[in-house]
Amino acid sequence: MTNATQAPATTTQVYRVYIKATPEAIWDAITKPEWTERYGYAARVEYDLRPGGAYRAYPGEEMAKVEGVPDVVVDGEVLESDPPRRLVQTWRMLMDADMAAEGFTRLTHEIEPGDAGVTKLTLIHELENAPRLAAIVGGELEAGGAGGGWSWVLSGLKTLLETGSELDR
Amino acid sequence: MTDDDRVFKALADPTRRFLLDRLFERDGRTLTELESELEMTRFGVMKHLRVLEDAGLVVARRSGREKLHFLNPVPIRLIHDRWIDKYAERRVSALADLKTELEQSS
């Protein structure tokens, strides 16, 4: 159903979390493998942090045990890197052929310092023409073992930075 | 007020839950769109959206000339991960203990 006040449906997903940590700590937790292996999907990331630089995420120990998991689970290209404030990149999941065929999406991390040592992290994932990926990162397939998507990843990131320990999986 | 207090307060209102459900259905809506689904003044809807934004459940972003409202599920996830998981787990282990006890006494 459409009417005059209805804009076209957006495929963008927006996530925001407040973390008691410095922008630098959050930047490192997103871009350095020694941190990314400790929350969410526990992938080992590789970032060449300059425009045009490559991004790759490799399966963590747990994920690598699952049959049929590719050597590289996500790839992409860095579009903008302004540490520790803003990171824009393309992002394509390679878990299976259908997902890879959806192509590159656009992922932005915005980090803004706030009051009392609390930093605001906003994640914007533009998922045009990527309905399968949108379901996964939206956490819709969690019951099927696909993890809880970005809200689960950010919850784990917050717990790790604020308590130094990992969320139970 | 803590972050969790703000989330529970925001959720403790049927109009605000209705707004979240509309955004869950289709994300990134303008105030005008949201207002058209409610028997309420524009000012009233704005007030409710403000409470949702303060609780972090809605994130508003500019897109050209429009301000779009997005559902942010992270605060609910945090409550789930910190609270609900904890009690659900305890209930499961209590049942497991009961089972062991019953089996031993039979």
Backbone CA Rg of chain A: 16 Å
User: What coarse outline of chain B follows from CA principal-axis ratios?
Assistant: elongated
* SSE run of chain B: HHHHEEH
| Strand order within the widest beta sheet of chain B | 1-2
Q: What's the architecture of the largest domain in chain B in CATH terms?
A: Orthogonal Bundle
List the helices and strands and how they pair.
The complex is a heterodimer of chains A (169) and B (106).
Chain A: E1 12-20, H1 23-31, H2 33-36, E2 44-47, E3 54-58, H3 61-64, E4 74-82, E5 86-93, H4 97-101, E6 105-113, E7 118-126, H5 131-137, H6 149-163
Antiparallel strand pairs in A: 1-7, 2-3, 3-4, 4-5, 5-6, 6-7
Chain B: H1 3-11, H2 14-25, H3 31-35, H4 42-54, E1 58-63, E2 66-71, H5 74-105
Antiparallel strand pairs in B: 1-2
Helix pairs in contact in B: 1-4
Please characterize this protein's 3D structure.
The complex is a heterodimer of chains A (169) and B (106). Chain A is α+β, with helices and mostly antiparallel strands. Chain A has one domain: Alpha-D-Glucose-1,6-Bisphosphate, Chain A, domain 4 (2-Layer Sandwich), CATH 3.30.530. Chain A has helices at 23-31, 33-36, 61-64, 97-101, 131-137, 149-163, and strands at 12-20, 44-47, 54-58, 74-82, 86-93, 105-113, 118-126. In chain A, strand 4 and strand 5 (86-93) form a beta hairpin. Residues 1-6 of chain A have low confidence and may be disordered. With 106 residues, chain B is mainly α. Chain B folds into 2 domains: 1-72, Winged helix-like DNA-binding domain superfamily/Winged helix DNA-binding domain (Arc Repressor Mutant, subunit A, Orthogonal Bundle); 73-106. Chain B has 5 helices and 2 strands. In chain B, strand 1 and strand 2 (66-71) form a beta hairpin. Chain B is elongated and about 70 Å long. The model of chain B has no long low-confidence stretch (mean pLDDT 89). Chain A binds chain B through residues 3, 5-7, 9-10, 12-18, 122, 124, 139, 148, 150-152, 154-156, 158-159, 167-168, and chain B through 3, 26-30, 32-33, 36, 56, 59, 61, 66, 68, 70, 72-74, 76-78, 81, 85.
